[in-house]
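Please decode residue identities from the backbone states below.
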């Protein structure tokens, strides 16, 4: 008897591609469906992870004709073809907003909420919000990240189906500590790769709170500490951030990199940096976890209660959310010994929770529980 086939649909931030690659390594018959529209974003394009892969893609990487997000059911050839194709799979694992027709497939499905789809969209009183709620409420399992917003949304929606915090797979072989040469200096190098998103004042979505980092960093250098901040100019608040840097008078201590970095560049900068700054409202993001895998201390706001629920232990990070907290953690990070200790603990924590074998074993267990049979 052949093992069941698993379809992974939607590839925001290449999470589905990474998951599928390691499921295949474990022997699971899994295929990932990537929307052509997603390829336009380097963050969701498999080429960003493995250069040249789209020139000769493996059989398990299926490129789907461009469909409007979130792939609504329409009488188009491409949608009909996708619908028919997915009917040949035993289980659908959707990432972010699932295809609207997923329930009509007559197949069990699990849904991985990548963040704002659960925290913001699913609780909105709009047609798209109603659709997202329906998808989550009828899934066999809803996976979500370890952040307060997702927990609160799951409780608010009264999701009675089983749902579990889902750690992202971090490629710990690639994102690993290495000796990246840097001139000998006492200067603290802070790398901030997160999208710039901090000016929005509404209550219907979560921002990253980047401005607090810049204000805290300004305090640090004005107090006489030697430090440099490197950040990526990407996201909706590039111009406001430029103005903030000018207003704070820290331009000579700041370097920018326009747009996205390749995966290799990110790894290089993680290892060059003394400290990596993630985000200050939502919790650990992909960048923060990649940096931890490289053995770097990470500035990030982590909810202790949520961390205990998800991991039964606190992640070894420089936990901070307010401007003053970030400032105090930056001062602590001036100590090389302290940074080395936190960085070593960070790498160990990622190996324990985010190594591909740990995450895949958890997924396989859930898949087998739903299907009632082995998947390898």
């Amino acid at each position: 008897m052949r093992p069941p086939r698993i379809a992974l649909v939607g590839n925001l931030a290449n999470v589905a591609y990474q998951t599928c690659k390691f499921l295949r390594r474990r022997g699971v018959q899994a295929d990932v469906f990537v929307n052509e529209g997603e390829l336009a974003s380097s963050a969701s394009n498999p080429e960003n992870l493995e250069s040249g892969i789209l020139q000769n893609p493996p059989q398990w990487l299926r490129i789907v004709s461009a469909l409007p997000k979130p792939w609504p059911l329409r009488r188009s050839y491409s949608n009909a073809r996708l619908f028919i194709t997915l009917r040949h799979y035993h289980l659908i694992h959707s990432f972010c907003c699932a295809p609207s027709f997923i329930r009509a497939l007559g197949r069990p499905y699990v849904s991985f909420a990548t963040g704002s789809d659960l925290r913001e969209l699913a609780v909105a009183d709009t047609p798209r919000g109603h659709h997202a709620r329906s998808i989550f409420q009828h899934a066999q399992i809803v996976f979500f990240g370890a952040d307060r917003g997702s927990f609160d949304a799951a409780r608010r929606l009264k999701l009675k189906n089983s749902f579990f915090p889902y750690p992202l797979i971090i490629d710990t072989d690639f994102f690993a500590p290495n000796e990246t040469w840097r001139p000998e200096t006492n200067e603290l190098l802070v790398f901030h790769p997160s999208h710039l998103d901090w000016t929005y004042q509404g209550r219907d979505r979560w921002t990253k709170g980047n401005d607090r980092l810049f204000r805290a960093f300004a305090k640090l250098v004005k107090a006489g500490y030697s430090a440099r901040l490197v950040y990526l100019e990407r996201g909706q608040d590039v111009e406001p951030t430029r103005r903030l840097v000018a207003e704070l008078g820290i331009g000579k201590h700041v370097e920018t990199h326009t747009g996205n970095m390749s995966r290799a560049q990110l790894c290089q900068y993680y290892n060059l940096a003394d400290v990596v700054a993630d985000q200050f409202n939502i919790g650990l993001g992909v960048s923060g976890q990649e940096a931890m895998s490289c053995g770097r201390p990470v500035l990030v706001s982590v909810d202790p209660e949520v961390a205990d629920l998800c991991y039964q232990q606190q992640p070894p990070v420089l936990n901070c959310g307010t401007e003053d907290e970030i400032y105090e953690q930056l001062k602590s990070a001036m100590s090389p010994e302290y940074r080395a200790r936190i960085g070593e603990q960070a790498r160990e924590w990622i190996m324990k929770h985010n190594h591909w074998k740990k995450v895949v074993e958890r997924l396989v267990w859930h898949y087998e529980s739903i299907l009632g049979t082995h998947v390898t």
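Observation: Residues 26 and 357 are 8 Å apart (CA to CA).
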